[in-house]
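Ligand-bound model needed. 2-acetamido-2-deoxy-beta-D-glucopyranose.
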Amino acid sequence: MGKGLYISKSVGITLIVLAVAAVATIIALSVVFHNEKSRTVEKPQINETDQWKSYRLPGTLSPQYYNITLWPRLVPDANGMYIFTGHSGVAFTCVKETGLILIHSNKLNYTLTPEGHHAKLTGLEGAEAPAIKKTWLEVETQYLVIQLSETLQVGKIYWLYMEFQGELANDLGGFYRSEYFENGVKKVVATTQMQPTDARKAFPCFDEPAMKAVFHMTLIHPLDTVALSNGMDKGTETITLNNQQVLQTKFDPTEKMSTYLLAFVVSDFTFIRSPAGAEVLIRIWARREAIEAGQGDYALTITGNILDFFQNYYNSKYPLSKSDQIALPDFSAGAMENWGLITYRETALLYDPIMSSNGDKEWVTIVISHELAHMWFGNLVTMKWWNDLWLNEGFATYASYLGADYAQPSWNLKDLMVLKEIHKAFAADALATSHPLSSLEEDVKTPAQISALFDTITYSKGGAVLRMLSEFLSEPVFARGLSAYLKQFAYGNTVYTDLWGKLQEVVDADPEVNLPATITEIMNRWILQMGFPVVTIDTQTGSITQNHFLLDADTKPSRSSAYNYEWFVPIKWMKSGTAMGQHWLLEKTATHDPMKTNSEWVLANVNVSGFYRVNYDPQNWERLLSQLSTDHSDIPVISRAQIVDDAFNLARAKIISTTVALNTTKFLSEEKEYMPWEAAVKNLNYFFLMFDRSEVYGALQKYLRGKVQPLVEYFRNVTSDWTEIPSSHTDQYNQVNAITLGCTTEVEGLADLTKAWFRQWMENPDKNPIHSNMKTTVYCNAIAAGGAAEWEFGWKMYKNSSNAAEADKLMYGLSCTKKPWLLNRYLDYSLDPDMIRKQDATYVIVYIAGNVIGQPLAWDFIRAKWNYILNDYGGSLSFSRLILGVTKRFSTEFELEQLQQFKEENVAAGFGSAAQAVDQAIETTKANMKWVSENKQLVMQWLTENSA
Ligand SMILES: *[C@@H]1O[C@H](CO)[C@@H](O)[C@H](O)[C@H]1NC(C)=O
Ligand SMILES: *[C@@H]1O[C@H](CO)[C@@H](O)[C@H](O)[C@H]1NC(C)=O
Ligand SMILES: *[C@@H]1O[C@H](CO)[C@@H](O)[C@H](O)[C@H]1NC(C)=O
Ligand SMILES: *[C@@H]1O[C@H](CO)[C@@H](O)[C@H](O)[C@H]1NC(C)=O
Ligand SMILES: *[C@@H]1O[C@H](CO)[C@@H](O)[C@H](O)[C@H]1NC(C)=O
Ligand SMILES: [Zn+2]
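Prediction:
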């Protein structure tokens, strides 16, 4: 699945409930023999009682192919319900003798046979099917259970046929409904999201990734619509069904693949396509308005390139004749890699040159690349079970940067992966409550347990660890191993050790590669234990030591590790600008004499090629800081960003003093590059939150103004007084950083600039002069500086906008006003669905809480309305995000008391899905109080001493 949102909001809430229920009902699968009198004695009967209580299929049957016909209704029935009807058959082989058929089925109603059964069983290729004894649905484990009067014969093929109907709900899972308006007319799209366990909600199927089969799809659909599926359509004919004229579209059979990769869509969308004659037909589908406005053009341009890149990289041809990509108005994840029909949310596929920012464009590029990487890694070769999901998603995350870099070579995307994935992974994995990348198969059984794996660790840490592997093997060796792996396991399923095995073969055959241990020995430490090390280098003695890095020094890891929280660490390092190659740390502590020095600076983990943080002895910190101040360009740009990020995080963990961290920001007055600035801005954000209501704020503003002023001047110059846009992608990002931080620190002229732009727009609403890259920050700053007129104008444009990306930027900007009455009114709007869509309500409240003036208003607001919020927004709000967002500034005794009181007063009403978040907020508030008391004086003094 694509990135961004791993689980839809409504799913997230129900999962917790399911997980609790599941623990209570996990029952070990028991296979024992029993002595039934009526049967022949030589053939013992298998006791299959209770097999349907197990969440895993018994492995007795193996599907070969399915024939599926579905008919979604795009208008509600007499009861106001949207439904689909269908029938399907599955040909399966019996691989172990059994008298029981378990096939997944969820929320489907069946047409019973004259005998009162849910299904019909016949033999294929001469096999004779036993009679059905009894059938029923198991709701908890999501099975259709079919008990037979006699057993199926090993090696024989059978055909199981069913007729059923389901709801085409707007629940974003299985076969579901998405709606939008076009020219004032409501349109309905029927579409799918099967991963991980919702194919069973569309038709009965053996819904496990290793149960690969071929799918023959047929869709029945209204006359004015088009139907799409994984395979190319074989033709559409008009038929009469239930006295209605409808279209029937049949599709080419799919490759042999997993159920979770199936997709089908009925819509009245239109498309653009690659030129005739191309080897693979590429089509981009979306709402008519969007395609006609050219919003699919960018995706079409880059898809062919990226597909070519992956065919070369994997040394494996794309096996399908077409690649459809479709943008859907309602979609839970970022995108989904269905083989041949990739589905996206609109912001992940559509790009509007005027309305979209360079960040929006980058997102489209990365997501397309991520999904195309899955065509091989995931689709052609699939994990055996969900416990190895990290391999699929981690790989797609890593490879997405390679494919996107090929499409946009000037964007430095391979470097940006450090900011976008690795820093995110560090943050998640530094908590005592983190978890290992790889789970045990028996720990992942229920749909809730499976869905919970779609998290930052799986995606970002998975990507970071595979990038490290590729770095120490070198990219060509890694790619050769992948290619061999894909060749051997094509159309099959694997576990992660299969990949280690193939890579090891390539390593063994290559005399150039020297590793201190096997791939398995090295990599298992990174995937079977949670967390990552901080490596401390003492240049006085040459000693290197590793320790498990935890952000909160007072916590202990939530689980034990077979490897004692030690890793095999590849250390690429340099000494005063000279690359020194790679050294392996294989013990808790070791000595490497070349690292001993008392004059040169040592820099380790160059370009963050390994997944760990680095600390040094104070003298080496001094030497690094001094190099940054004299000529920072001697240190590679990624490492400059990493020094800042490591120092601030080591300081939070109390491993080094906050002064060292602050010292790493001094060189920023000379820095023009985006990555170091972005790392600093992210880390300083915590200082703003903790201090923006105290005297420290003035000192912080003054210090940073001195740092950012030269950057503002630089961009003013580069852009000919803000009339142009810098040509480089990362410069475009850093220009936004300059304006945002410049406004926050009151660099002269910037407030007037943003106000003037906004005023120009107000005077001519049809012509917005603000470049899309800068809209978020300009809207925010102009509305903050302005009054009611600016706010009302912004609100009007928000309500009139038909572009989701533009509306989001305005929605944020409106939260920046400094006028309490406007903020309070906006808070009221947030819970009025006619004003703010329900799905956006939490965002608005949290944005307002991000504003130092809005913070107490938002806190009062949610306390006053808690019962109402809980009852009316149950399914559509993320309560955790709400609680954590509104309390993230809390750092005083008084706020802690209020929070505790809030918890006590609402025990009866409850906190919905936010019970854990309330406790977390209390913990965080205490940690913040401690940090502020330990650091306030010191920070104040440092800022005062270091301000120009
Ligand atoms: C089959 O196994 C179940 C539980 O494992 C047991 O309760 C039941 O008595 C067994 N049935 C027969 C017929 O042996
Ligand atoms: C399934 O569909 C395919 C393609 O239409 C057809 O050739 C085959 O006979 C069908 N199988 C069964 C058992 O109906
Ligand atoms: C399935 O049957 C249940 C129980 O009769 C009913 O409530 C539900 O609406 C039915 N769903 C569909 C899609 O027909
Ligand atoms: C921070 O920098 C100042 C001035 O360069 C220096 O005197 C001080 O020792 C540094 N502090 C630390 C902890 O490195
Ligand atoms: C502005 O640009 C000019 C030439 O392009 C350069 O000489 C000057 O140093 C620049 N000024 C700043 C502040 O970057
Ligand atoms: Zn993915």
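Confidence is low (pLDDT under 50) at residues 4-44.
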